[in-house]
Amino acid sequence: MTAHDDAFAACKFVKSTCGVQSINRLDDVETSETRHVRQMMFTHFNKFATGEGVSKLSPLPGTPPSDQMTQVAAWAKSLMTFPVGTCDAMACLALVYLAEKKTSFPVSQMSLVDADHVFVVVGTGIARNGPWSQWDTANAAICDPWADYVGPCTRTGVQTWMEKLGQICEAPFAPAATMSTMFEIASRADWKYKLIP
User: Fold this and answer.
1) Is 147 helix (H, G, I), strand (E, B) or coil?
2) What is the side-by-side order of every strand in the sheet holding 107-112?
3) C-alpha–C-alpha distance, residues 95 and 10, integer Å
4) Helices 3-18 & 67-81 angle (0-180, nearest 10)
5) DSSP letters along 36-97, please?
6) Which residues, at least 6 apart from 45, have a Cβ–Cβ distance to it below 8 Å?
7) pLDDT tens sequence across 139-190
8) Positive or negative CA dihedral for 24, 132, 121, 11?
9) Residue 23: CA atoms inside 13 Å, Cβ hemisphere, count?
């Protein structure tokens, strides 16, 4: 399987888990009732992700996980429990799915600098902390369940993704030319949890 295939499977898993219910996508159609339900679920999600959920996580035997890994696992578990979240939570669940179920590595949780958006990149051949305008490889893929986008890290793929984000993110959407790697898993052996059945 390719990085694109793995990214597609991860995005599909996240969407089926949370029903693409974001708390902050401008194009989500919602009534006052669904808005209330989403907000209530998101309140529970936040409490679970920062407290109760962390205490319920059991790492695999061996080297203890880092605090950052534990937080990624807690956010993913929270999204599986309360199926509504932000791009951060959806990216955490996509990263966990890729780390536990797929074969393409590295898997990186990344953010757009100056745009408050988090997503996942899987595969090789790009400078993750370099200018995204220079990405041009089909050996890596963008996995952005919040935006419902999966595509190659080619110039055309990145441009298509940026255009989609421009339509659904709060204005003004003006990301910096670089991205920031928040968390990365280099291989399955680096992941210290088992969350996905």
Assistant:
1) coil
2) 149-153, 137-144, 117-123, 107-112, 179-185
3) 8
4) 50
5) HHHHHHHHHHHHIIIIIHHHT--PPSSSPPPHHHHHHHHHHHHHHHS--B-HHHHHHHHHHH
6) 78, 79, 81, 82, 84, 85, 89
7) 999 999 999 999 999 999 999 999 999 888 877 788 888 788 889 999 999 9
8) positive
9) 21
